[in-house]
Amino acid sequence: MQDQAQEDSTLWANSKLVHVLAGIYLWEWFTTLPYEWEVMTGRRRSVGMVSFIVYMLIRTLTLVFLITILVTWNLSTPLGTAACKFVYHWVSIVAALTLLCCALLIAFRAVALWRKNWVAIGWIATLWSLDAGTAMWEQTMGTPRWSDELQRCQILNTSAFRVPLLIDVMANMLLLVTMLLGLWRQRNDTSLWKLLNIQGWSWLVVALLCEVPSVVLNWLNISEAWNILFQTPHLVALVIVCTRIHRGLVVYMTDFDKGSDSVYQHRQRPSEFEFATPLQVNVRRTLQQSTAVQTSAIEGAVDIIIMTLRSI
After folding, report:
1. What is the mean pLDDT of residues 251-261?
2. What does DSSP assign to residue 290?
3. Distance between CA 50 and CA 202 in Å, rounded?
4. Are the C-beta atoms of residues 311 and 201 closer than 8 Å to each other?
5. What pLDDT sits at residue 312?
6. Of 183, 94, 170, the residue nearest 127 (C-alpha)
7. Which pTM value belongs to this model?
8. What is the pLDDT, as a whole number, of residue 193?
9. How far is CA 284 from CA 113, 184, 219, 220, in A?
């Protein structure tokens, strides 16, 4: 365990880290606003509205989360224990909803890749529900109080988060593995499959790098400050990767009004992956060595994936 001086030093480092992360996220948020504008003005067509709403919730909730933390860290007047409890529960709920929405985007993609198989849907729904239940359980943990010495809110009993965090990591990993298994069942030589494969593995690696340190630190229980040190980096990194991966797939798949310029135009799908209609894909150029039967089967698989992704 750390002494009080070391604890104060860790809290100070945590404060500076939050400020840096807030700056990074604000830059990310403002530089990607053109995508939202294109979708909301109808210039980018055939976007699944449910997944777009979830995407916007993730972006907005993360912004609210960071602004609340920054305001709390920089207050010059004492909050008091009652106000501290309110802020703590508010921030915890916003963070939980943000991460649940990220998990929901994984679930949507997994459902599409499993072609709306009811067994797969039941398994995916169970994992997401476990994640949601764990998030609600976490709200009953931690003891916020106002510290006159530190002049900020202090969270006690943070070691209690170790079990919920472990369950959360396991649920997310299982969701990502389920998504990747569904993807490998559909493997083919199309550009869409290659993009989904790269995105899926990237998502898994980043999730491991973001979530494992938080779990390890909580189980080590060095101090209250160390237990929560990686919570904010974990959330911000996951949100940036989650939204970038979702945005990249949508930009690749959707049609754009050719009469208008798009800042994402250079990221449009390669020429060998052309849409004959909004729900038909010509994959013949990437399957020159395949038979007509193989081509038809792959076209059907790609059609189903695209229709499902666009419907959510």
Report:
1. 61
2. S
3. 23
4. no
5. 56
6. 170
7. 0.80
8. 85
9. 21, 20, 53, 55
Tokens 């504008």 belong to 37
All domains of the chain in start order, with CATH: 4-270 (1.20.1070.10)
Of the listed ranges 117-121, 239-243, 260-264, the least confidently predicted one is 260-264
Report residue 302 as tokens. 């790609």
As a whole number of Å, the CA-based R_g of the chain is 22
Q: How many helical (H) and strand (E) elements, i.e. helices and strands, does the chain have?
A: 10, 4
Q: List all residues 6 or more positions away from 279 whose beta carbon is below 8 Å from its beta carbon.
A: 303, 306, 307, 310
Average pLDDT, stretch 34-52? 82
Structure confidence at residue 308 (pLDDT): 54
* Tokens (6 digits) for 77: 């007047």
Virtual torsion, Cα 252, 187, 100, 234, nearest 10 deg: -80
Residue-wise burial string across 37-76, b where 16 or more C-beta atoms lie within 10 A, e elsewhere: ebbeeebbeebbeebbebbebbbebbbbbbeebeebbeee
Residue 45 φ then ψ, to 5°:
-95, 170
